[in-house]
Design a protein that fits this description.
- It is built from seven helices and 18 strands.
- The chain is α/β, with parallel strands linked by helices and 346 residues long.
- The strands form four sheets. Strands 3, 6, 7, 8, 9, 16 and 17 form a seven-stranded mixed beta sheet that branches. A six-stranded parallel beta sheet has the order 12-11-10-13-14-15, sandwiched between helices.
- Helix 3 links the parallel strand 10 and strand 11.
- Helix 2 (137-150) crosses helix 3 and helix 2 (137-150) crosses helix 6.
- The longest helix is centred in the middle third of the chain and has 14 residues, at 137-150.
- It is globular, with a radius of gyration of 21 Å.
- The two termini are 26 Å apart.
Length: 346
């Protein structure tokens, strides 16, 4: 039951970020419907930029054959553009069912200062998780799903290739397992300090230890996947977390791939990993993910904050490499200080 009477209310005008062409984004205003039964009006506090996927959208590189599967839960428009995309939003419930009012929530919603969604899409953020850190919930969920796919065992030798946001997150969670060995691997020597902050052994690909039981590949580079094939032990498994979008990847499967009976398995967060699919829902997975963020070490993944009005410029700077970040956070203004927008949509 909603706590407000919507009759005669002043319409709520929201502002959202839209990709409107290759390498072009803008802020647009739109009128929100009042929340209906079982719905909540959320005021955004922070959102996070999921650099890998959002840069693919920004550069109009979503393959047509997977456009439907790659749609965000509350996306508007369609690929390549115009499209309202994103999925790391944290806010406060301003209107809706009484038991949700005032709660801080995570939602898989695009970058938008206010939005109306069914409460079933909200994940409550625990009191011991700061709202800014909670934008990482969706990325932790991706890492949790990968570990459910991989199923690491006691004493396993594991390598994670690619020390970006996803690779670092996977390595951080793996660091809580009783493994025999864990290495975070990257070509960039500057990532050594990042790995040390996480308390994880770092290696350049040339120096990485072989004979791994599991290699989790997150570098989105063909060379990284080739190295994964070399580092995994006989009958070992590679979990492929990279999304190459419209790029072609060539692998040396004619060498010892068959003789050593290696396996490459994709992990994608759209559905719960097969090993847990019959016993966990997407909501269960999100609730687990946000609970893990009580550990302050996750602040290491938040590498900058910009205001909502700066978002179009920030996305372009992330795309062209002039801004380096793991997860760049967007902070939202108050209702009395709205962000400028270029267009109103209905």
């Amino acid at each position: 039951m909603s706590t407000s009477n919507n009759a005669g209310q002043v319409p709520v005008i929201a502002t959202a970020y839209w990709t409107v062409g290759p390498e072009k984004g803008e802020l647009r205003r739109e009128e929100l419907p009042p929340p209906g039964p079982g719905e909540a009006l959320v005021r955004a506090l922070y959102s996070g930029i999921s650099k890998g996927t959002e840069m693919v959208v920004h550069n109009a590189r979503v393959p047509e054959c997977v456009a439907k599967e790659m749609a965000a839960p509350h996306q508007a428009g369609s690929f390549p553009s115009p499209v309202k995309f994103g999925y790391l939003s944290v806010g406060v419930v301003e209107d809706g069912p009484a038991d949700w009012l005032g709660k801080t929530i995570f939602c898989l919603h695009p970058h938008q200062d206010r939005y109306v969604v069914p409460v079933e899409y909200l994940t409550e953020v625990p009191d011991n998780v700061p709202a800014r850190r909670a934008v990482l919930t969706g990325t932790v969920e991706t890492a949790v799903n990968a570990l459910w796919e991989a199923g690491p065992r006691l004493g396993d030798r594991v390598a994670v290739i690619g020390a970006g946001l996803v690779g670092g997150m996977v390595a951080q969670l793996l660091g809580t397992f009783p493994l025999g060995r864990l290495q975070l691997i990257d070509v960039d020597p500057a990532k050594r300090a990042f790995a040390q902050t996480l308390g994880i052994d770092f290696s350049h690909p040339d120096d990485a230890l072989p004979d791994c039981d599991i290699v989790i590949h997150c570098s989105a580079a063909q060379s990284g996947l080739e190295r994964a094939l070399q580092l995994v032990g006989d009958e070992g498994e590679i979990i492929e977390m990279s999304w190459y979008a419209d790029r072609n990847v060539t692998l040396p499967l004619g060498e010892d791939f068959h003789a050593r009976r290696l396996s490459i398995r994709a992990s994608q967060v759209g559905v719960v990993a097969r090993a847990r699919r019959h016993r966990r829902t997407n909501a269960d997975r999100l609730k687990l993910a946000v609970s893990l963020l009580s550990d302050p070490v996750f602040d290491t993944f938040l590498t900058g904050t910009s205001g909502f009005s700066e978002l179009p410029d920030v996305v372009q700077r992330l795309s062209d490499g002039s801004l380096d970040a793991l997860c760049h956070v967007i902070g939202y203004p108050s209702a009395e200080d709205p962000a400028p927008a270029t267009e109103t949509t209905r």
